[in-house]
Amino acid sequence: MDPDLELLEAVAVGDEHALVALIQRHKEGVFRFLYRMLGNEHDAAELSEEVFVKVWNSADGFRSGRGQVASWILSIAANHCRDYMRRQRRRPWISLFEASSGRDEGLSVSESEADPSADTLRTVEMRELVDRMEAEVARLPERLRTPFVLAALEERPHREVAEILNVSEKTVETRLYRARKHLREALGEV
Question: How many structural domains is the chain composed of?
Answer without folding.
Answer: 1
